[in-house]
Design brief:
Shape: globular
Number of domains: 1
Strand content: 5-15%
Order of helices and strands: EEHEHEHEHHEHHEEHHHEEH
Helix content: 40-55%
Number of helices: 11
CATH class: Alpha Beta
Strand order of the largest sheet: 5-4-3-6-8-7
Bound molecules: iron/sulfur cluster, zinc ion
Length: about 300
Amino acid sequence: MPRCKSCGKTADGYVLRHAKMHLCKECFIKYYERKVLNTILKHGMLKGARFIAVAVSGGKDSSALLRVLRKIAPELKMVAIHLNLGIAGYSDECQKTVEELCSQLDVNYVVYDLRREEGFSIPDFQDTPYGRRICGVCGTVKRYLLNKIAYRLGADRIATGHNLDDVVEILFELYLRGAVEELVRIRPVSWSTHPKMVHRIKPLIEMTEEENLYYSSATETPFTESKCPLGKGSRMMKRKELIALLEKNIQGFKHMLYKSHVKRILPKLEQSIEEPTLKECKLCGMPALKEICSYCKISSKVRKADVNQP
Ligand code: SF4
Ligand code: ZN
């Protein structure tokens, strides 16, 4: 049985492959919390923060995020925001998990039911021109609503559970496409450039999916293991599988790609690409790049589809 690199006790299954390290449960928990705190401090994520809104889906990453933030910043005012996306056989289970999680951690929470509040749910996009890239649309809906809810609540930070694997997958796709305007937005912190835009932080950006799973399990944090049925076979999932294969053959690949982006490429991109000026969407009044924001544009498709139904 391998020994914990930190204390020498039997290491009960906590293997950090990229760091070639075995740890026991207690040392892993300390390692994880220290590493997240370092990321937060390194990027000044909570500097001057008074009220943080944490996006929780019920999955391992955001559940780990809520617990670790509670531990690291117990004095900070915190609210969890959960979006019920209306995905049959998945969303209700996620909501239940979030309710259990928040009551265990004693955190106030808001559940926003998409169908009830907005009149549509994510599966409705399947019958629209956006059906083939449903995860992209879902991402836009989530980003918009989280900002709007957090803004209305008066929060000055939104924390999301994006992990290293998520970010590397996005980087991989954007580098392939040479999408520099989008690449410049992939960063640990997105400081707001509009009064209705809340600063967004990604405290788990340096943690792998596996580490978040270990942490949630080791701390007995409630999370759902169910996967969204709409994500099955998506291009995003295929890219993640490919990256996992690369990581298996080139250990440290994900950390390398992320670090090169943040340390070397991002500063250069920030110098050469101007931050776009945000205006207010003519329909909803929230920040937008064009006259009509992407949320209003895409949601009009499902609202229209509703009207056309017999
Ligand atoms: Fe949304 Fe895709 Fe995630 Fe499902 S897998 S919750 S559709 S982003
Ligand atoms: Zn709008």
